[in-house]
Amino acid sequence: MWQRMLSVAIATTLLAPSVIEAQTLAPPAAPLAAPAEASAIPASDYVGATGPGVTPTTHAPNTQPTIDELMRRIAQNEAEIAALRGKRTTPAAYVNQPSTANNQLQDEPSFPAIYERLRNLENLLQAPIPGQSLLFSLTGFFQLDDGLFDQSAVNTATLGPVQNGIGFRRARLQSFGKLSEFTSYTMEFDFATVGRPSFMDLWVQQSNLPFFGNVRVGQFRMPVTMDSWTSVRHLEFLERSTPFQALDPFRRVGAMAWCNSEDERSLLAYSVYGTGLTFWNGSGTSYSTFGDNRSGTQLGNNGVSTSIRGTHLLYYDEPANGRYLLHVGGGYNYSQIGGFGQSGSEAQTYESRTIPEFFVGDPAAGGATAGGTPFVLDTGRILASNYHLWHTELAGNYGPAHFQTEVLLTQLNQLHGPPVYYGGTYLQGGYFLTGENAGYNKQVGVLDYNVKPFTEFFGLGRRKRMCGWGAWELTARWSYLDLSATNILAANQLGGTPGIPVSPNPGSLNESTVGLNWWWNQYTRVQFNWIRAMLDSNVTGSSTMDIYATRFQIEF
Q1: Residues sharing a CB contact under 8 Å with residue 188, sequence separation 6 or more, in sequence order
Q2: Complete DSSP assignment for 310-337
Q3: Of 149, 259, 301, 405, which has the highest C-beta tally within 10 A?
Q4: Is residue 363 predicted with pLDDT exceeding 60?
Q5: Of the ranges 39-53, 267-281, 468-482, 500-514, the best mean pLDDT one
């Protein structure tokens, strides 16, 4: 009995000053939920799901710990609170020191004061600090690409001589955090695009709402396809598929609601956003209703769109954390086309086009940058009132092997003419030679191709040897895009760009890609893609282009 009394006296003497000081920060309210919301946000490249991130302190459940364990936990919490206040603390030195008290297992009734003070400290660490958000972090990444092009004679005549090149595909900085327990935000800019910097994702989100779940307002990727919601940091190939490039509206300004089922095996997301218009500056399209919205502004009379996407895991191996799974999904998009009148630069028009699945330059700059990789297919500007887009998706993991496929179909309703149909599909897969597996993000319903190698790649010094393989993956993809419709009324087909590449240049495109991905560690990778683009142009006929491309990428 005297041993317990001595233990209480020692603990009270050590804790009293620190506890009193800590309680001035915030009242010992009920514990707040740990800020794990960040990894559940389908923001630009999964805000909080990549990079080192901020990890809240967690503790093992109370299972009658020893006095040593209780004292270590208390001292650790005191040290963390002191660090947050910018002060040094002496209890931290005790964290790894044994106590002189009786080390037998102790339950809560034996030491109610210690347990109460321990709970207060742990609650304080999870409570907001006055004047600061619950969670704040700065993250970023860059991708350095190098490409060599080999064209057939017909392809050169169709597209012009495509220049080899090296350049930064993306160089982004992103701030994200929580303004309150249920209010989060992100601000992301890209420094490798025209305009430097350019708007990417900027939004605020309110979570834990009745009926809606989560509501987001701002600029973000619309819930249309699986390809578009896959993190740009963690693409399995250097670029997303050609059907995505040509048919997915991608990043727009609007509002979205999304929620997951209680078991996180199902997802439903839907949005309303401004369609924007396709603007013609006299020499090319300088603003389009597809692709990244780099300005953060959308113009266009009566242009309103809505999208919905749903997914479900038919099978998910919980013990293996998704090493084996089967995913299905689909979605629908309806867009009223923005614009004014039926002639001129701001006419109500639709234009679909695609680059090959690699490029050097910036296609948002009214085409590609001078001498950059051109668009290989282009419908030209078509007078139209609206369009419908349907898509289905299927994906799966089977140990180190995985696959992903989607089918997209667009019905374009041209003015005073019959409907026009465009469509595409892709099938991609990979196999990890070193045994790892692709991840899966339940919150956004996509495969996550970010891998933590079983053994990282490193060396032992100049006079020693290399160690660790890192992670190695073989990949392959086939994609098909059909923009060859010929039932467009002449009165609806507005002018094109003179010279090469020919515009409009309708047709179809088959592309095959084989690749090799090498992760040095979870945040550094090297990728190689050999892409063969087989173009069948309505204007010039069949041609081929081979692309040999590499990428070096880091993220933090």
Answers
A1: 44, 172, 173, 174, 175, 200, 201, 202
A2: EEEEEEE-TTTTSSEEEEEEEEEEEEEP
A3: 149
A4: no
A5: 468-482
Task: Please answer whether residues 242 and 274 qualify as being in contact, where contact means their C-beta atoms are separated by less than 8 angstroms.
Answer: no
Q: DSSP assignment, residue 59?
A: -
Tell me: cis bond preceding 374? Omega within 30 of 0 counts. no
Mean pLDDT, the chain, as a whole number?
Answer: 80
Give the Cα-Cα-Cα angle 487, 493, 495 (nearest 5 degrees): 145
The answer, yes or no, to whether the previous bond of 501 is cis (omega within 30 of 0) is yes
Contact 242/222 with Cβ under 8 angstroms?
no
Q: How many CB atoms lie within 10 A of CB 100?
A: 11
- The stretch 284-299 carries a mean pLDDT of 72
CA dist., res. 278 & res. 289, Å (int): 6
Q: How far apart are CA 239 and CA 355, in angstroms?
A: 10
> Band of the pLDDT at 63, cuts 50, 70, 90?
low
Concatenating the DSSP letter of every residue in 216-262 gives EEEEEE-S--HHHHS-GGG-SSSS--HHHHHH---EEEEEEEEEE-T
CA 344, distance to chain mean position in Å, is: 37
pLDDT band, residue 283 (cuts 50/70/90)? low
Q: Classify 128 as helix, strand or coil.
A: coil
Average the pLDDT over 391-406 and give the result. Answer: 97
Residue linked to tokens 């639709």: 350
Tally the C-alpha atoms within 13 A of residue 363's C-alpha that lie toward its C-beta.
22
Going by the DSSP 8-state scheme, the letter that residue 364 receives in this structure is B
Phi and psi at 498, nearest 5°, equal -70, 160
Pairing state of beta strands 458-459 and 183-190?
A: unpaired
What residues contact residue 116 under an 8 Å CB cut-off, 6+ apart?
none
Report the C-alpha gap between 47 and 41 in whole angstroms: 6
Sign of CA dihedral 403, 271, 47, 32: negative
Please spell the DSSP secondary structure of 280-296, one letter per residue. E-SSSEEE-SSS--SSS
217 touches 272 (CB < 8 A):
no
d(CA 377, CA 354): 6
pLDDT exceeds 50 at position 43: no
Q: What does the pLDDT read at residue 468?
A: 87
Give the number of other CB atoms < 10 A from CB of residue 95: 15
- % of the chain beyond a pLDDT of 70: 77
Length of the chain: 556
The Cα–Cα gap between 304 and 368 comes to 28
